[in-house]
Amino acid sequence: DAGVIQSPRHEVTEMGQEVTLRCKPISGHNSLFWYRQTMMRGLELLIYFNNNVPIDDSGMPEDRFSAKMPNASFSTLKIQPSEPRDSAVYFCASSSDRVGNQPQHFGDGTRLSIL
Amino acid sequence: GQQVMQIPQYQHVQEGEDFTTYCNSSTTLSNIQWYKQRPGGHPVFLIQLVKSGEVKKQKRLTFQFGEAKKNSSLHITATQTTDVGTYFCAGPSGDSWGKFQFGAGTQVVVTP
Question: How far is B93 from chain A (nearest CA, A)?
């Protein structure tokens, strides 16, 4: 079975550019999570969806960040405009249970560098 | 809000030795999960504990959930180089279902 698929794997772009990260969750999973990981702040939950609906976006750092889930098999995380401090590894994860009682399956991540 | 703390943050172990990492929550958890992240990789689910006082084993790894369901531990016996990585515990936040808070992780380095 295919796991969580993220693209791109690596992204290097200049400050001010728009960045779009993509995620395809595991088929049948109804919860999707976006995380950011840095050395300083560890693994931070940015936003999560249940049945394509954003449930909690309190972790989104600021208005430059936005996330969508137009259907059960696709989600995007967009940063516009990007800044050097956004450099991090961004993970998408999916789960089969909305109440957090099932494991989260992580994608390989997108390693983002903003110059 | 809920906080999940892990200690130690860093663990340097000689191959063959045992070690334990601890996870403490400021609130009671309905369950706790453990994940392992290899260097350059992504977190991978290891196990979930649900019952008070529950103990589960995976080969050389022993996981325990405290009686009050506010703490957990991971004990590794006879550490091997394949145990290198960061071990995270995660528990559901009581203020928003479906949301897990991850601890900061314990980074394990194994010396041959």
Answer: 9
Nearest-angstrom CA–CA distance, A100 and A2: 21
Give the separation between CA B89 and CA B106, rounded to whole angstroms. 9
- A57 vs B: CB within 8 A: no
CB contact under 8 A, A100 and B42: no
What would the pLDDT profile of A57-85 be if each residue is shown by its tens digit? Answer: 888 988 999 999 999 999 999 999 999 99
How many whole angstroms separate alpha carbon A88 and alpha carbon A106?
A: 16
Whether the CB-CB separation of A71 and A52 falls below 8 Å is answered with: yes
- A24-33, A96-105, B28-37: segment of lowest average pLDDT: A96-105
How far apart CA A104 and CA B112 sit, in angstroms, is 32
Which is it for strands A110-114 and A10-13: parallel, antiparallel or unpaired?
A: parallel
| Chain B CB contacts of A42 below 8 Å | 102, 104-105
Identify the pLDDT of residue A55.
87
Percent of chain A past pLDDT 70, that is, above it, reads 97
Query: Which residue of chain A is at minimal alpha-carbon distance from B31?
Result: A101
